[in-house]
Amino acid sequence: xxxxxxxxxxxxxxxxxxxxxxxxxxxxxxxxxxxxxxxxxxxxxxxxxxxxxxxxxxxxxxxxxxxxxxxxxxxxxxxxxxxxxxxxxxxxxxxxxxxxxxxxxxxxxxxxxxxxxxxxxxxxxxxxxxxxxxxxxxxxxxxxxxxxxxxx
Length: 152
Fold this sequence. Notes:
The protein contains 6 helices and 3 strands. The termini are far apart. The protein folds into 2 domains: 66 residues, Multidrug-efflux Transporter Regulator, Chain: A, Domain 2; 47 residues. The chain has a 3-stranded antiparallel beta sheet with strand order 1-3-2.
């Protein structure tokens, strides 16, 4: 679809944009309702420009990387307000550094949880591999221990 005669700007319907970006039309409408994209109207039909498509790509990438809608909006608002984009890049750098730190902390927590679960798994396998012992024996001592790093 093209814009008015004499312009070369490519326009997309919500369905075309959804298909091109691998999202549902409902997702696009959601981001529109949140004010992250603002399509034009041609009659009763919403049409999206290449700029809208680019903004939506930034929204989807930000969400995929774990940024909130508010953080994505803040980034997009700076894009419109600062033609040099220096403030936008500064904000982006700070947000990216914070997100990396949060993900690294999550990785440490996940690694710790996996170590403990593997220990419990090993003890459970051992407990099932030997004949039952006395009824008061503890078959899974790892479950009774405090987690590593926890106060005893």
